[in-house]
Amino acid sequence: MSKQGVVNIRGKEYKTVALRVQEFREQFKDYALVTDVIQLDQEQCVIKASVLNELNRVIATGIAQEFRKASQINGTSYVENCETSAIGRALSALGLGGQEFASANEVLNAIHQQNNPVVQEVTEDQVKAAKDTLTEAARTGELKKAFFTFGPELQEKVREFANELKKSA
Q1: How far is CA 36 from its chain centroid?
Q2: How far apart are CA 45 and CA 105, in angstroms?
Q3: Closest among 86, 74, 65 to 118, alpha carbons compared
Q4: Rounded distance, CA 49 to CA 85, Å?
Q5: In this structure, are residues 158 and 137 in contact, taking their beta carbons and an 8 Å threshold?
Q6: In sequence order, what are the beta bridge partners of 49?
Q7: Residue 74 contacts residue 67 (beta carbons within 8 Å)
Q8: Around Cβ 39, how many Cβ atoms within 10 Å?
Q9: Nearest-angstrom CA–CA distance, 12 and 14
Q10: What three-state secondary structure class fits 137?
């Protein structure tokens, strides 16, 4: 960090969400920052953050989405990471950003995910169940649709099987 709360990533300066919140509290004492969970399940979280002025009017918003399987940290903290990102984006919309809209955490997380993609392990039981699903789907003319409901790792394991089913149809 060149300055406390500011991170230089690839030549651009990004403020941490903690610094943005501190600046918000100092500059907008009568404003409120609220978050709403839009979607939350075992796979993903979507949160909207809103900045309300002294009249309780929304003057800035930010929305974020996080997937539980996106990173090791998200495995236990995808909801917290999602809320932090939404807050950072709302504060950027208010004008409390750096040179860029994304926060330092969002950019670093994106770079980490690009460099370290999560590979989901596929079990033999999953492969067998997928083949059963594909066999049934081939009978009803829904083979392609069924194939694309699988994740990329499972698709790779059953691609040849699906192609054989397609040829025999």
Answers
A1: 16
A2: 17
A3: 74
A4: 9
A5: no
A6: 35, 62
A7: yes
A8: 11
A9: 7
A10: helix
Mean pLDDT, all residues of the chain: 83
| Strands 12-15 vs 6-9: parallel, antiparallel or unpaired | antiparallel
pLDDT in tens, 64-122: 998 888 877 888 899 999 999 899 889 989 988 755 555 555 555 655 555 665 556 88
Is the Cβ–Cβ distance between 33 and 21 less than 8 Å? Answer: yes
Please list, residue by residue across 21-30, b when 16 or more beta carbons sit within 10 angstroms of its beta carbon and e when fewer do.
bebbeeebee
Bridge partners, residue 52, by sequence:
32, 58
Q: How far apart are CA 159 and CA 164, in angstroms?
A: 9
Order of strands, edge to edge, in the sheet holding 32-40? 32-40, 44-52, 58-67
Structure token pair of residue 154: 């499972």
- Confirm if 105 and 88 have CB atoms less than 8 A apart: yes
3-class secondary-structure state, position 72: coil
Tokens 């997928």 locate to 130
